[in-house]
Design a protein that fits this description.
This protein has 511 residues and is of the alpha/beta class. The chain is built from twelve helices and 18 strands. Among the domains are: 263 residues, 3-Layer(aba) Sandwich (Rossmann fold), CATH 3.40.50; 92 residues, no CATH class. 26% of the residues lie in helices and 20% in strands. Strand 15 and strand 16 form a beta hairpin.
């Protein structure tokens, strides 16, 4: 029905008109993708066949070529140039490699050329040769998306060493980034973002800081976890102090992203050479006190190297990866409490024996997410908590995630509505309210929240407010995790014993 203008006669009656503006909001489901940051092999390998000449330089296919050997870490071999007959050529005598810097100064964009030395007696002008070289182009250290483990291995290398180290108890991790991806896929992650740390960025801490900055405004990077070599080697101070500084860096990174409108949760695991005598783990967690940071425990986990058929002790950062991957595979209203951890060989007995209920309760109360063996012997997350136990909406990972999901849905939903930039008219405020209503209904439908109430939209007025602002308020109810079930039972002896006998014995006819 439309309200008439009354310029012509109308019989007495009630006129009702729906003046609401239809605002269609596409339900946005924030992605839950684990981002793994850490050291990788450090290079890729290429084999190229080409014609060498003293008069014409030939540009190698890939940029960022390592033209000389690098001691590392990681160690990188120098290029090898050989004739088709197998003769190894000598740099400076048979050929020359020249690096042409990119104007940006990025070494990953620098190209490399090869020319024959005119006086060479081992290769003639115009002869075909092959060159095997290692390179790290600009894409190597950029965020890359993977959906399977083999692609990660192709990009960064094998996760394990192929032979048992000579040094007793030495790590068998060849590539923390590839191993982290393997653990993530084993625990339900379907998509990963991987970022290889770039040694050119400075110390290990500085490498992580630079890597975090690359995904600050990447909406998909909702969960981020660093991996590192099993035994951290600080330039000064203790391993515990270095780990604490790295955890603080991760917390800073996730908070910076949150303030930019990209909420995310960080997971941090301790190195295996962490000393709880230097910084007790409860103190470590209390120093973080962040609802956006999860501290995985213990600091040691067993890993099985299929290449050597041996089990060895690895760092707790892989437990952090496992917890992060489990979380990414769950609905946003579900945490990781009681979820089974896969992709490891369990915990060493030295860790199991000290993890009494009393010990673990102290850790969990301070905000530590513990992995322990259940009654059946399976490794599981005892209680998925953040390092901020001050309130339940900060402590429970699932509640934090629901808030994040709703924040993204409302923000992106309103942006997609096309309302921003329009002139404010008589129906604008109701249109804004309806847009938010659509987002909230969609959030309830996909179980991101339980319900909402008291949705209001008000245009601010001058001089107390800014009339270009429409303020929206509402309250929502998140799904709370079921953490406890209390049962009271008592024995009932009032019934006594009941004697029974067969029908034959009762009638006296038995034989």
């Amino acid at each position: 029905m439309t309200i008439p203008s009354f310029t012509s006669y109308q019989p007495p009656q009630v006129f009702v008109e729906d003046v609401s503006i239809p605002v269609v909001i596409t339900p946005l489901v924030p992605s839950q993708v684990v981002t793994i940051v850490g050291p990788a092999l450090g290079y890729r390998t290429a084999i190229q066949s080409l014609i060498v000449s003293a008069s014409t330089a030939v540009t190698l296919t890939y940029t960022g070529v390592f033209t000389t050997a690098v001691t590392g870490p990681p160690p990188v071999a120098a290029p090898v140039v050989a004739t088709l007959s197998g003769t190894i050529l000598t740099p400076g005598i048979d050929y020359t490699l020249t690096v042409i810097a990119d104007p940006s100064g990025n070494p990953g964009l620098a190209s490399t050329t090869i020319v024959r030395v005119n006086t060479s007696t081992h290769v003639s002008d115009g002869q075909q040769v092959s060159i095997t070289y290692n390179y790290a182009d600009a894409a190597y250290y950029a965020p890359q998306v993977f959906t399977d483990q083999q692609s990660v291995i192709n990009a960064y290398g094998q996760p394990f060493l192929s032979a048992v180290p000579v040094t007793p108890n030495a790590s068998q991790v060849a590539n923390p980034l590839s191993l982290g991806a393997q653990v993530a896929f084993s625990n339900g992650a379907s998509t990963l973002i991987c970022i290889a740390c770039n040694p050119a960025d400075g110390s290990l801490e500085q490498q992580f800081q630079a890597a975090y900055a690359k995904v600050t405004t990447t909406a998909a990077a909702t969960i981020i976890v660093p991996v590192f070599t099993d035994d951290l080697s600080p330039s000064s101070g203790t391993v515990a102090a270095m780990a604490d500084s790295m955890a603080q860096d991760l917390n800073t990174a996730v908070m910076v992203a949150y303030n930019e409108g990209y909420p995310r949760i960080g997971f941090f695991g301790l190195p295996r050479n962490y000393s709880e005598g230097d910084i007790p783990v409860p103190t470590f967690a209390a120093g973080l006190a962040s609802r956006r940071l999860v501290l995985a425990y213990p600091e040691i986990v067993l890993m099985f190297n299929s290449a050597t058929s041996t089990t060895f002790q690895a760092s707790g950062c892989y437990l952090a990866v496992a917890q992060a991957a489990i979380l990414s595979s769950m609905k946003v209203n579900t945490g990781i409490t009681s979820q089974v951890v896969r992709g490891t060989a369990g915990l060493p007995q030295s860790e199991v024996s000290r993890m009494t209920n009393a010990f673990m309760n102290v850790l969990a109360a301070s905000g530590v997410s513990i992995c322990s063996n259940n009654w059946a012997g399976a490794l599981m997350c005892r209680h998925g908590v953040t390092t901020d136990p001050s309130a339940i909406n900060h402590q429970e990972i699932s509640v934090v995630r629901q808030a994040d999901s709703l924040l993204v849905s409302v923000s992106q939903g309103l942006q997609a509505s096309g309302l921003i930039g329009r002139p404010i008219g008589a129906n604008t405020v109701s249109a804004v309210q309806e847009a938010v209503l659509g987002v909230l209904e969609a959030s309830v439908t996909r179980e991101a929240i339980i319900s909402y109430r008291n949705l209001t939209a008000v245009q601010q007025s001058y001089p107390g407010g800014n009339p270009t602002i429409v303020s929206v308020t509402f309250q929502y109810l998140p799904a709370m995790p079921l953490n406890y079930i209390t049962v009271q039972m008592s024995i009932d002896l009032t019934g006594g014993l009941v004697a029974t006998q067969s029908q034959q014995n009762a009638s006296g006819t038995g034989t």
